[in-house]
Amino acid sequence: MAVDALIVDDSDTTRSLLRRRLEAIGCNVIGEAANASEALQIFRMKTPQLVTLDVMMPTVGGLDAKSLLAKIRAEAPEVVVFVVSSFSRENQGRAFLDAGAADYVQKPFINFEQLSKKLRKYFPELREKP
Predict the structure, then answer these.
(1) Does the domain spanning 3-56+67-120 belong to CATH 3.30.70.890?
(2) I need a labelling partner for 13 at 20 to 30 A (CA). Which of 34, 77, 83, 112 fits?
(3) 3-state class of 103 per DSSP?
(4) Which of 24, 67, 22 is nearest to 48 (CA)?
(5) 85-129 pLDDT tens trace
(6) Mean pLDDT highest for which of 12-26, 62-76, 89-103?
């Protein structure tokens, strides 16, 4: 059974890359969003099992990545949120873990083997490699 995923990233290139990689390991990408506001709308309509979340996105109506994470955790605590973003400091990634993210990987050079290994902790049905 495929894992339903929502990709949240302001970069078309990153969303496309993540889509291909997630689908290759067994995810069903049910939506993509370029900002937190779009993501929340899609999330509420489709309730994915997995959300990949970039934290360096434009804000829309005051909704940023941290508030989106808080809303997801409050509305559906069983949803696994993985932060996929570039951080200038290690403690920025830790702050999202403290806020309820399952884990994080850094951009721009995403280690997809590492990501799939981390995702399999939550979704053992996913393939290790495409």
Answers:
(1) no
(2) 77
(3) strand
(4) 22
(5) 876 566 677 788 888 999 988 887 778 888 899 999 999 999 887
(6) 12-26
Q: How many residues does the chain have?
A: 130
In the DSSP assignment, the letter for residue 2 is: P
Mean pLDDT of 61-80: 88
- 0.90 surpassed by pTM: yes
Per the listing, tokens 């291909």 go with 20
Please name which of 56, 58, 48 lies closest in space to residue 27, comparing C-alpha atoms.
48
Q: Is residue 91 helix, strand or coil?
A: helix
What does the pLDDT read at residue 90? 63
Nearest in space to 64 (alpha carbons), one of 74, 80, 53, 75: 53
What residue type is 24 in one-letter code?
A: A
User: In terms of Cα–Cα distance, which of 18, 1, 6, 2 is closest to 85?
Assistant: 18
Question: For residues 127 and 130, what is the distance between their CA atoms, to the nearest angstrom?
Answer: 7
**Coil, strand or helix: which one is 72?**
helix
